[in-house]
Structure formats: structure tokens, C-alpha cells
Amino acid sequence: MAKADYYELLGVSRDAGADEIKKAYRRKAVELHPDKHKGDKQMEERFKEVSEAYEVLKDADKRAAYDRYGHAAFSNGGGGGARGGGFHDPFDIFREVFGGGGGGGGFEEFFGGRSARGGPQQGDDLRYDLEVSLVEAFRGTEKTIRYRAPVTCDHCAGSGAEPGSKVVTCRTCGGAGRVISSRGFFQVQQTCPTCGGAGRIPEKPCSKCNGEGRVIADREIKVRIPPGIDTGQKLRSAGNGAAGPQGGPPGDLLIVVHVRPHDLFERDGDDLHCLVPIKFTLAALGGTIEVPTLSNESGLVTLKIPAGTQDGTVFKLRDRGMPRLRGGGNGNQFVKVHIEVPRKLTSEQRKHLEAFAEACGDAERPTEGGFWEKAKRIFE
Fold first, then answer.
1. Exposure string (b/e) for 177-193, b if CB count within 10 Å is 16 or more?
2. What percent of the chain has pLDDT over 70?
3. Distance CA 294, CA 300 (A)
4. Are 233 and 325 in contact, with CB atoms under 8 Å apart?
5. In this structure, are 64 and 180 located in the same domain?
6. Pair (243, 308) in one structural domain
7. Which pTM value belongs to this model?
8. 240 pLDDT above the threshold of 90
9. Based on the domain organization, do 168 and 237 belong to the same domain?
10. Quick check: 379 pLDDT over 80?
11. CA dihedral sign of residues 257, 258, 260, 261
């Protein structure tokens, strides 16, 4: 009898990608697995056929040979032949895709997770939100943080058993840490409700931790904040998370950093932006001013203002921005100037300013000529 087309067996097109082929095989393999159809030889044969199809189509070279020569590519020793003549055990292929077992009564492993292993379990990771100032983020700092977390019980040394008593194998799961229950066609593994997956329980629970092996306590650690840290970035403090049950190793502490807004600076990645007011006379005549910066101890840096500087002009101070957390160096600092107009003038100041305006011809046309030329063309 002619062999079925491999693409049709998996229900995919001939131009299907590797991920699509793998997903199709997973669906078919679960549907046809012999553990789901005990004693059904037809289903077992179909399971072998889809496994053979997947073995060929997942391999680029085998797939190319099949696309060119069809099933003849694997006959007469040309790459595998029929099952038993070069193709792998279909259950080996199933195990490769799903992980773990896959034949001989092992079907439940793929619906209940991996087999549990008894013994102490690792504790959970914990999160701590830490707020720092922009100056601290620029220079780097060390912070002491305090939090509450599960720690190993000092009365039973984490075993969960009252001193003088023993830790014994859990009778419910026999030390496996999981129990199996039937759900229709499937057998499902679940965490043992008695030992919580540890596989062992205290003969007499500890009077301080009630058999948990850990208690809630205050903790205090120091954390180094690297220069250039930004909001949302995380630091990992290994071993400072929750202690594991029954003496298990602790998890980690994940510190999420939040940088407070600054009164003068706005941050954009590694760059800093600030707005600096200047006198209109300085903008007209030019000169120098001192502007704030985080890049030195004095907090100030000299900036040259060219004559004729306009309101909103932005100056770049190279390498005076935030330190780059990765890659070294610093970003830039951008200074935007805002020209201040005096609100009150003395009589002498006013006289001199009027004379200046007259000398510039401002009385007749207070705005640049180019503006009025454009204004005349509004309705043209």
C-alpha cells in the first residue's frame, strides 16, 4: 500500500516553516498517542506514521531529499528506509519534542509536568522598589534597605522538625513529592498536598515555624547603586530573597530602581536637559554665564553666549550628561536659554532703551522686515 504524504499526515503545506511543522506534530502526537488509545492498533500505527513524517520534515537535508524524490529517497538504504530500517523509535521522537518519557505508560508526564523530586525547595525571588535621587543616580551610591522576608528558622535549623525529632518520608506520595490522579483519558501529576512537593515531612513539627522550616523576619542589606542607573532597571542581590521551605536555598532579591524627578534637570536616556534664563542685554552683546551641571563637584560650568543669541537657543555641553551604564563615557548636557525681559525700568534705563530703539529704527517697524514682507502675501 502506498505510503501517505508526510505533509498531509501532519496537516501542513509544503512551504511550512520549522515551527509550524513542530506545532503540527505536537497536536497530532497528543491526539494519537497509544496511552490515550489503549489496545487500538490503528491509532498506534498512525502515531508511528506522524512521528516518521516529523523526523523527516524537521531535518533540512532529509526534507530536501523527500521534496525531490518522495519516499524513494529513504528506500534501499538511501537515508533510512521504513521504520526499523533507519528511522528512530517514534517514542524517542515524542520524548525529544515534549521532554521526559513518552512511551510505556508515561503519557501522563506530558499533562502533569515533569516528575517531582523530593527534598528541600528553593525559595521565591522577592521584589523591592528603591527610590534614588538624580544626583545619586549620576554618581552612584550605596543604600541600606530594610524589608521583611521568610528566613530559615533558627529553632529547627530549617528542617521543620522539632529538635530531637526526625524528618520522615511523606506517606501520601511515598517521597515522590507528587500524586497522580485520573481525569478521563489522562493521568495527571499534582503536587502532594501533604508535603507540598518536598517528599518528606517532620515527624513532630517545629514549635516555632510549625514545620515550615522558615519564619518571617526583618532583614537589612546594603546595595551598591551603579552610576548611570535609570528608572525601571533592576539589580539582583543573590541569596537575599525568601528562604526555601524545609531548609531549601533562598531565592534572590530583585531591586527595581526609581529615579526621582529633579528640579532643574530633565533626563532623556543618558542626556540631561535644563532651561537657563539670561538677560536680554547678554543675549544681544554676548558674554559668559555659569550654568548648573552634575558633572563636577562645584555644580557649575562656564558657558559662552555669542552676541545675538535668540530665545530658545540650545547649547550642547559634550560628555556632561549621565554616565553610560554600559559602554563607558557620558551622555551630553543640553542647555536651552530663555531671554528675560525686564518688567520695570528706571527713568534713566528707559531713556537709554528708547534711544537704542530709535537708533535701530524699531519705532517705525518693531519686527524684522522679513515678517512684514510675508504678512503682505497672506491674501495673495
1. bbbeeeeeeebbbebbe
2. 80
3. 8
4. yes
5. no
6. no
7. 0.60
8. yes
9. yes
10. no
11. positive
Count of CA atoms in the C-beta half-sphere (13 A) of 305 = 27
Where does residue 99 rank: exposed (0-12), middle (13-18), buried (19+ CB within 10 A)?
exposed
The C-alpha atoms of residue 142 and residue 225 are separated, in whole angstroms, by: 6
Taking alpha carbons only, the member of 163, 167, 223 closest to residue 195 is 167
Residue numbers of the domain that contains 244: 126-259
pLDDT of residue 304: 97
Residue 145 three-state SS:
strand
Alpha-carbon distance of 92 to 55, in angstroms, equals: 10
Among 203, 238, 259, identify where a domain stops: 259
Nearest to 100 by CA among 90, 112, 109: 109
Crossing angle between the packed helical segments 18-32 and 90-98, to the nearest 10 degrees: 120
Contact 257, 130 (CB under 8 A): yes
Residue type, 200: R
Give me the chain's average pLDDT, please.
Answer: 83
Residues 134, 98 share a domain? no
Can you tell me whether residue 50 is helix, strand or coil?
helix
Instruction: Say whether pLDDT at 40 is over 70.
Output: yes
* Residue-level pLDDT at 352: 86
Percent of the chain with pLDDT over 90: 48
In DSSP terms, 333 is beta-bridged to: 272, 317
Q: 363 is written with which cell numbers?
A: 519705532
Is residue 250 pLDDT above 70, yes or no?
A: yes
Domains in the chain, number: 3
Number of Cβ atoms within 10 Å of the Cβ of 201: 21
